[in-house]
Amino acid sequence: MALAKAFDEMTGPGDLPAGGPVRDAYDTLKAWLDKTPPEHFNTRRSQAEMLFRRIGITFAVYGSNDSTERLIPFDIIPRVLTKPEWDFLERGLKQRVTALNMFLNDIYGAEECIKAGVIPADLVYRNQHYQMEMRSFRVPHDLYVHIAGIDIVRTGEKDFFVLEDNARTPSGVSYMLENREVMLRLFPELFSRHRVAPVENYPDALLATLRSLAPQSASRDPTVVLLTPGRYNSAFYEHSFLADKLGVELVEAGDLFTKDDVVYMRTTEGPRRVDVIYRRLDDAFLDPLVFRPDSVLGVPGLMNAYERGNVTLSNAVGTGISDDKAVYSYMPEIVKFFTGEEPILHNVPTYRCREKESFSYVMDNLKDLVVKEVNGSGGYGMLVGPHATRREIEEFGKRLRHAPDGFIAQPTLSLSTCPTFVASGVAPRHVDLRPFVLAGADEIRIVPGGLTRVALKEGSLVVNSSQGGGTKDTWVLDA
Amino acid sequence: MRIRVVHDTIYTYEQAARGLIQVLRLTPRDHDGQHVREWRIEPSADGRLTAREDGFGNIVHWFTADEAADALTVRVTGEVETFDTAGIVRGAMERLPEPFYLRETPLTEPSPEIQAFAEEATSGGVGERLSVLHQLLTAVPERVVFEPGPTSASTTAAASFEAGKGVCQDMSHIFIAAARHLEIPTRYVSGYFRRDDGVDDQHAGHAWAEALVPGLGWVGFDAANGISTTEAHIRVAIGLDYLGAAPIRGSRIGGGKEGLEVRLRVEGGIESHSQSQSQGRQSQSQG
């Protein structure tokens, strides 16, 4: 099936003739692209790569041997959002994350949404990420998701959809920050011609968020640490980068211990009490006495300290359930139920293969659908029907028939494209957007923009870096 | 039946171990089928022992030692009065909704072989719930031989089923995996079992399963013995699998290699035999 030409971030609806007018926000950028000699771009692109490599090397100081793997392709043509577009997204994101937090607070507490039939009980209780330990106590300020990466796709001028709610340990924000820094260095002239909203305050916003969530027992100046699984984790560079920007200690399990339900960090001056842990470690590894007993990445006794209210974990334990793609399919109802408002941001229509009718529809239409594992991430284990071979579709159909509960399906969306440098010059490539939403006790903070991911392969709709995706700087124009 | 338990778990460490934390799920609670007359937990080292309740409603003691130790014995002594309720468990602490007990865990993942076994043993699991469960209860010990040794605490249901061997923990996991595959809420129980063959000294606690039967509630199924639970069973802790109900989970810093020995004595009430125990499997059941 050939997809209709997608909405282009620069030229607008697909049916406009090439070389025609561009959308207002891209006026200056287009002129710049047209006027700048190609050699100049080539120089800048190799400079960009060098800068990123140098950053990669900086990260490698911590012991990475495979910095080449860390180098995700960067495209120098920014993706631009207007102020009204961003205002709309921002309102939608705040509403969505507010609803997510109310939902989590409810399924670990009063369970009203289950009683009211908003979501089926077994979808919640049978979910691997539903952590029953969280039923016995309240988290500070009833907030579970403090840092969310909400993936958004666009299909038209005003058509934005949420593709995924990443509510565990979303990554990628370091690219957002690095991409901006590199762009500022390479193209200062562009920034003098545009009023681009800054993103550099993200670390401050993150730290303020984390501090606002400190337990009541903490001092006025709570101690925040970033807990990493260690240097072999694929996002380790981001952990060290963020700890550095936040000005907090980057710790591994061995740097922490618990005593009498309090978490301490070993320091050269002796043990120091820890109040907030920004953990980039999955629930299952946090505490070998409660979760996986073979985890050497966690801290024995951590959950006890957490349950006693002596330390805040960020994100809270048990947020993974809102990452689940079957739960996702209920988000419109969840938003309505908890906020009493119509959802501002729409979901992609989703077929739940666990339901008989949907399942047979999906089986009959595999070639037109995107099918995903409910617990999958990173673009693994999914089928993009229109781009799959007959054999791939057959193979996937078998897996699907074997365990229908484990899958959802969505229509193949024609994601918007954005002009991107490729071997043949500048060509449209599909993009998505991951804004980072920070929910603190005081307010919800969102740095304007986020991370734009781009599928570099022509026609590809899979933007994940593990699947050959790249990134772009994302601009929100202030005027 | 009045059952007395003396249960020593003895750890020895090559070198002194610091920062000892032991999580003990070793304390039974009352339900209609058992009344705890007295119960005590005594660690041999100095430290703090605090009691809490976990998400399942189990009583959990956290023991943290003050100083480094090269050995630690956790001694449990107690006496429980039990009553025959035909395996039905009423009046127990219920903290979690029933669908929760349908969740698969790594230890109870139903392999294709276990799925096929569950369906064959029960003609597809379509009959009345209680008879389906009894069919499974009969089928598990027919397929899996009780044999201590080849399996360990981290052996999965699938691995034990494939080997065709296991102890009570493995047989319970297989029963649970099969029952959940048939969409029956099922959970793991750790506890004690008073043998009626005159053997009071045992080397491990016991384990079985509970499954939900409409109209009856939770019913105990002891797959290792091929029987419903009786007044010879003392129910201590429940979980989705062994990990959730494990009698002891611990951590320490240093200490080198660890030695572990269990001395368990379960005695009493020989005069009042239960009717439903006449299957003759008890002699090889301990695990």
Automatic annotation (TrEMBL), chain A:
Pfam families: CP_ATPgrasp_2. Residues 78-455 form the Circularly permuted ATP-grasp type domain. InterPro entries: ATP-dep_Glu-Cys_Ligase-2, CP_ATPgrasp_2, UCP005522. Signal peptide: none annotated. Coiled coil: none annotated. This is Putative circularly permuted ATP-grasp superfamily protein. It comes from Methylobacterium brachythecii. The lineage of its organism: Bacteria, Pseudomonadati, Pseudomonadota, Alphaproteobacteria, Hyphomicrobiales.
TrEMBL record, chain B:
One of its GO terms (biological process) is proteolysis. GO terms for molecular function: peptidase activity. It comes from the Bacteria. Residues 160-225 form the Transglutaminase-like domain. Keywords: Hydrolase, Protease. It holds the Pfam family Bact_transglu_N. InterPro entries: Bac_transglu_N (IPR013589), Papain-like_cys_pep_sf (IPR038765), Transglutaminase-like (IPR002931). This is Transglutaminase.
